[in-house]
Amino acid sequence: MKAELNERVTRVGPGTACGELLRRYWQPVALVDEFNPALDPRMAKRPVKAVRVMGQELVLFRDAQGRWGLLDRDCPHRGADLSFGRHEGDGLRCPFHGWKFATDGSCLETSAEPAGSTLCQRVRQRSYPVAERAGAVFAWLGPDNMTPPPFPALDCFSAPASHTFAFKGLWNANWLQAFEVGIDPAHPSFLHRFLQDEALDAIGDNAAGKQFRSASAGAIDGEQWPMTRIMREFAQPDISVEPQPWGLRLTALRPMTSQLTHVRVTQAVFPATFVIPLSETMTITQMHLPVDDTHTYWYSFFTSFAGPLDREAMRAQRQQFISLPDYTPKSGRHNQWGFNPDEQMSTTYLGMGEEDINVHDQWAVESMGAIQDRTREHLGTSDKVIMANRRTLLKAIDAVAAGSTPPGLAQAEVAGHRIGPDTVDGIAPAGDWSQWWRDVAQAKRAGAPWARAADEPPPEPAASAAAPAQPGVAA
User: Rounded to whole angstroms, how far apart are CA atoms 71 and 102?
Assistant: First the structure.
């Protein structure tokens, strides 16, 4: 990739080409947990947080009625930092001169102005549309004169709270390399390779970072294989990429015998989300929020198609590796990501621990540098997903620059349509794997009452008794 194109796809601040693209999509800006006084006692009296999103300085707060507000952080009076504002229940007041703003950015008071002043009526702080879904607060940072697309109808946002869990972590690197590591179908055979397997009954759905220890769907001679063995023994997948309305469907086939093949179907939801299977009944939807050009928060949404999740247990497991309240990993460049050369020879291919494979991805992302220099890379056949995504990204950036609507979830008809999207990880009949994975995905969905209900079309609206439908007018 040429240097100028690398700049074009990585820089995300206000006014940049890629930044303008990413602002057309709903982005996660905080976990609801960040406002939980049990996890951050500061929130008990003052539910206010400074947030940085794509190089913009913003303030997120919740008023006494539970309404979220996301505002530009600089007070429109003289630019003081509103994240230090006084939380007064109905709004946030700047301590500099007492100007006060509601969650929608409207000015409630300009306290230092003379009696009878109408200045407050003519002042408004820029606010951004927000939505709370699946344990996170999302925002749309597009142009002020544009209407946001509908919130995406993905599985993780359609499941009830009892069946979802959200968590996040900070990586010291650019958003695109974080996303590209996640959508790469070849890397699990190496980066996440375990040199020995583990008893499958010792692994639960709630285990932190152990998705490559769990079993694939299907079996060989009646025996279920752990993903560790499949990834280790079949390391040259046949990768295919299929364009979809939401992005790309990624399929990695690992032929095992003449009759059986391992199938792993994942999804790249444009521009920065992937959906992967964690087990036969759980998926992970991971979104990548650019904090700025050199820092990225990943947000993971775990969705169960079986029973409810033990969210407290899942949080406790992950807090072993991530420090709150800023969700900063305990491993990083400062301690060589926990690298152990003895472990690399005996236990894991990478040598950075067995309990949390997120640090494996963190090393891959951060070790490239704050912004990967793509002029120095040499792509191969196994990188076809990376190349396909970059083509889509560059085309979308050009579309926004030309005044058009970018693809996928920025388009109302795509965002408003129930899409899932489905994933699978299993051992299939070699000659019929395409139908097999669809049948497995459908069976998983059929086993979850919430998913069945979400997939059903809404009932036809009945005409109101007070206002009967008129001839020729739809009720």
Answer: 9
Count structural domains, the chain. 2
Nearest to 319, CA basis, from 70, 20, 31: 31
Confidence (pLDDT) at 209: 57
- The arithmetic mean of pLDDT across residues 459-468, rounded, is 39
Residue 243 backbone zone (phi > 0: left; psi -120 to 50: alpha; other: beta) = beta
pLDDT band at 466 (very low <50, low <70, confident <90, very high): very low
> Model pTM?
0.92
Q: Give the CATH number, domain containing residue 286.
A: 3.90.380.10
Spacing of C-alpha 68 from chain mean position: 20
**Those residues with Cβ within 8 angstroms of residue 324's Cβ, 6 or more apart along the chain or in another chain:** 39, 40
DSSP state of 212: T
224 confidence band (pLDDT: 50, 70, 90): confident
The residue with greater pLDDT, 467 or 366, is 366
What is the greatest pairwise CA distance in the chain? 86
Residue by residue, DSSP assigns 344-361 as: HHHTBSS-S-SS-THHHH
How many angstroms separate the CA atoms of 192 and 153, rounded? 31
Q: Are residues 205 and 296 in the same domain?
A: yes
